[in-house]
# Entry
Amino acid sequence: NVEGVSLAQLEKMSNLEICKLLMSMSTPETFVSDLKKYLIPFLKRYEYLTKQIEYCIVGLTEFLESISVDDLSYILLVLQSHKDFELDVRTHLELVEKCLFAHRGIEQLDMACDLLDTILKETD
# Structure
């Protein structure tokens, strides 16, 4: 995943840039498993080493919000995989809100409705 990137370059990157690099080879079919295999362990390790409480959730939210600017399908995949990502209702709501507000287009209105539907299912 990170071929062609030197350690010096990696050390200069922000965590968001590293997250994007780790997930750069993901496809819609592998996105959720890649999050669990690459991104979550990176964020948990960073959280542990820096002692920043709940950084894993913060980093995951930041990453999902950044990719939602152009495409809501990935956040929808995550929220539809609720067994893989046990998020409390508050975190779920905040994540949907941030991703919807970050999205720039109107062509994925059906996905926006599906995201709102996940909130309704979560709060029932």
Remarks:
- The chain has one domain: 7-123.
- Residues 7-123 form one domain.
- DSSP finds seven helices and no strands in the chain.
- Residues 31-50 form the longest helix (20 residues).
